[in-house]
Amino acid sequence: MIALQQLIALLPLLSLTLAAPSNSTISKRCTSAITSYDGVSSAVSSGCDIDLGAITVPAGKALDLSGLKSGIKVSVSGNVKFTGGKEWEGPMFIIDGTDITFDGKGHTFDGQGKTFWDGLGSNGGKTKPKMMKIKMSGTFSNLVVLNAPVQAFSVGNKKALTIKGITVDTRDGNALGGDGKALGHNSDCFDVSATDTTLDGNFCYNQDDCLAINSGSGITFSNNFCSGGHGISIGSIQSDKVVSGITITGNTVENSDNGIRIKTVYEATGGSVSDVTYSNNKVTGIPKYGVVIQQDYENGSPTGTPTNGIEIKNINFKSGNTVQVTDEGKEVYVLCGSGSCIGKWDWSGLSVSGGSRGSITGNPPITGFSL
Predict the structure, then answer these.
(1) How do residues 272-316 score in pLDDT, each as one tens digit?
(2) Mean pLDDT of all residues in the chain?
(3) pLDDT tens digit string along 128-180?
């Protein structure tokens, strides 16, 4: 038999053995800190979570977080400045991967748009880089994007993505050039060609579309604030591009050229827009069109003659949509091609006021509303 004294001596070792945690318990997620631009590539390839500090990105270079390992968390702990002035197409920032969590923690990505703006945007003049290319699935949140040279966000994920708590601020682009026009141009906040995407609780201050859906399905745009631009858009829809299953709800649009619009490109064919639902959106201070659906779109100069190669189907305004235009604005403008606006168009949840009534042509099957 083991002596009592020997048993007492063994008790501490026995206790440690029984209490020892498994490897999965003691393992801790590694984190790779980025403290300079030169550390970006190694942080991405490390397979660790990323802490993105206050860094400066060289002119003409991308902050490239593509190819992240599944499940990675990216946290921002400092403001990031993109060096301006060099003409290139961008994007300035790229992120992709599956089930990624990006938390900007309220920090700023500064695109230095003032060094590019010439009033022409992507239509000419200096070659200006697009800023944020988002291809990841997961959650992208809590970031301020300041002074994007042209379009701020290009979203192209194929799996579930939520973008929330983002502020895009290009108000400095409202400064006037020698021709009396704003220097900022084509400054879309969110250009979306994606699947299963939610944009919720974001703020947009710009000179172009707050949202532009160019293709995709299962897209929700909810509780966002849009000011100074061209409003909430689907399109312009080009040939063979398909948009379906869109929910636009709880948004505020103010002091923008247009409120809510769908635009298909003149003579485009093979595409479609279907199953779009608007609810509880508040639109105010609109000098052009409160609601506009047009099938004659050409960049900057619509033809006035609609074509019917893109089908628009099931466009519905549920309860709570209020649209107010200024004295010079038109409440509603619909221009459909022959037989291309079809299905159910229940507009009983739309209320318009101010300005002139506008017009509805092309026999869209609107019910519950009339000018």
Answers:
(1) 999 999 999 999 999 999 999 999 999 878 999 999 999 999 999
(2) 93
(3) 999 999 999 999 999 999 999 999 999 999 999 999 999 999 999 999 998 99
Q: How far apart, in whole angstroms, are the C-alpha atoms of residue 158 and residue 306?
A: 32
Say which of 73, 185, 230, 241 is annotated catalytic: 230
Q: Which of 17-26, 227-236, 339-348 has the lowest mean pLDDT?
A: 17-26
**Residue 271's CB: how many other CB atoms inside 10 A?**
20
Residue 18 lies in a domain: no
Q: Give the span between the Cα atoms of 347 and 351, in whole angstroms.
A: 9
Q: How far is CA 357 from CA 95, 261, 306, in A?
A: 45, 16, 20
Distance in angstroms (rounded) separating the CA atoms of residues 276 and 235: 13
Considering only CA atoms, which of 220, 58, 195, 209 is closest in space to residue 134? 195
Question: From the CB of residue 17, how many other CB atoms can be counted at a distance below 10 Å?
Answer: 8
Q: State how many domains the chain has.
A: 1
Q: Indicate the pLDDT class of residue 25, thresholds 50, 70 and 90.
A: very low
Q: Distance of CA 363 to CAs 237, 253, 290, 337, 342, Å?
A: 20, 28, 19, 9, 9
Spell out the residues 6+ positions from residue 362 whose beta carbon is closer than 8 angstroms to its own: 295, 306, 334, 335, 336, 337, 338, 340, 341
Residue 230 annotated in active site: yes
256 belongs to a structural domain: yes
- CATH number for 267: 2.160.20.10
> Could you tell me if residue 84 is inside a domain?
yes
Domain that holds residue 150: 46-367
For tokens 């635009």, name the residue.
Answer: 263
Tell me which amino acid residue 359 is.
S
Task: Decide if 232 is inside a domain.
Answer: yes
